[in-house]
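Lab notebook page, bench 4
Experiment: in silico fold of construct C2
Operator: M.H.
Input chain length: 155 residues
Purpose: comparison with the prior construct
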Amino acid sequence: MEILELNYLDIDEKEEYKKIISMVLQECFKEENLNGKNLYVNVVLTNPKNIKQINREYRNIDKETDVLSFPMYEKEELKNLKLENEDILGDMVISIERVEQQAKEYGHSFERELAYMVVHSFYHLLGYDHMEEEEKKEMRAKEENILEKIDLKRV
């Protein structure tokens, strides 16, 4: 079963994007024991204008951002989830232009920044957050663990 559905919204398709996103999601699914659960992630790659519009429409926040996450399940629901048919874990919307900007800003590769956006969004799909300090520590540790396993840790 394919764990990734990749869509492009007003940007050019690149095989590199799919390769990175797929690698990250495979490691995430493995780490969180989601393989064989009939789940997949819908990833939309887009530009700043579109992500701003989506952010405004679904979150009432009228500004551009780097990544949006739309989970389909609550954290507790996922623990005992048994699906007979394929279902979506959630949607990620990523601004490729922002990934490029932030990679330069933070002084690391495009690959590393895109991988971080995917793993960050993935853990939001699983119900993790970073509003409280304890939650933030837990989420960051999970993110760094995945990035280390795929050899894209923070430099």
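Observations: The beta strands are 4-8, 39-46, 67-71, 87-95. The chain has one domain: 4-149.
Next step: discuss at group meeting.
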